[in-house]
Amino acid sequence: MNHSVYYGLDACPLNRDQVRSLDFAVSSCFRKIFCVWTQTVTEECKTLFNCLSVPETMITRKYKYLHKYIYLDNELRKLFNDRAITDLST
Questions:
Q1: Structural domain span for residue 37
Q2: How far is Cα 69 from Cα 54, in angstroms, rounded to an integer?
Q3: Which one of 7, 12, 32, 43 is most buried, counting C-beta atoms within 10 A?
Q4: What count of other Cβ atoms lies within 10 Å of the Cβ of residue 6?
Q5: Which of 15-20's residues contact partners 24+ apart within 8 Å by CB, and which partners?
Q6: Same domain for 46 and 65?
């Protein structure tokens, strides 16, 4: 999936409805591109093209972001370091 869709979401929390809405948009694109209308076939297309679901992608991106963040050496990192480590452990 195009990473520009997810740009900035690793640093900004989204609620469950917003994640579902994004997932619907991605699935809708697959339905239109491949002219399929069932959820099962849409999920199979996403699997074949190695497109993770939006929640899985967001978790992966957030993990990478926080992992890089905790190794920064600046004042902002020092301020929020405990929170980042807590988020990484959950």
A1: 14-51
A2: 22
A3: 43
A4: 16
A5: 19/54, 19/55, 19/58
A6: no
Instruction: List the end-to-end C-alpha distance of the chain, in Å, as a whole number.
Output: 25
Residues 45 and 63 grouped into a single domain: no
Single pTM value for the model = 0.68
Is the CB of residue 85 less than 8 Å from the CB of residue 70? yes
- Structure-block tokens of residue 86: 């807590």
Render the burial of 13-47: b for 16+ CB within 10 Å, e for the rest: eeeeeebeebbeebbebbbeeeeeeeeeebeebbe
